[in-house]
């Protein structure tokens, strides 16, 4: 197998990442990836001997690492204010292709070997939940909010801010509109809806 920094291999991973993100693991074939990269189906096995599963695992892990680094950097760069941290994280998620956790849980992971699926889901949760849950726990320790389960709150935050990707483009036509909507979603979680 060629080194992972091989330009052709990176092109294959980029195409696989885009296709898996758009359509999910079960709907993408190696032939689709070959067509997207102008490579023959059989040639892909030189780069990924375990085929589609190997490519899915690699691009999924790469996506989680990128999200973890991006969200962590956004939160750290926002300083100590929780609202600023959540807005920074919301802007990060709005600027990225969404992680379709629902599809992953209900479809993609069921098509993988159980051990691989469990490992990927744990990696996902750690990557996207950990930096947000840490910010929430820190604010709770300071007495700024009451959250009984920071991990659950972090995943609720991720689900809500990523949901802005499902709003038709006519309502959020620019990337800035999308980012502002994600920040408003973060504010809804922080401030709640009820009058106090």
Output the keywords.
single chain; 196 residues; mainly alpha; Tetracycline Repressor, domain 2; 9 helices; 70% helix
What is shown here, in short?
With 196 residues, this protein is mainly alpha-helical.
Terminal Cα separation, in Å? 61 Å
Estimate the helix proportion, in percent. Answer: over 70%
Which shape, going by the Cα principal axes? elongated
Tell me what portion of residues adopts beta-strand conformation. Answer: under 5%
Order of helices and strands: HHHHHHHHH
- Report the CATH superfamily: Tetracycline Repressor, domain 2
Radius of gyration: 19 Å
Tell me what the structure shows.
It contains nine helices and no strands. The protein is mostly helical. The mean pLDDT is 92.
Q: How is this fold's topology laid out?
A:
Elements: H1 7-23, H2 30-37, H3 41-47, H4 52-77, H5 82-95, H6 101-108, H7 114-141, H8 150-162, H9 175-191
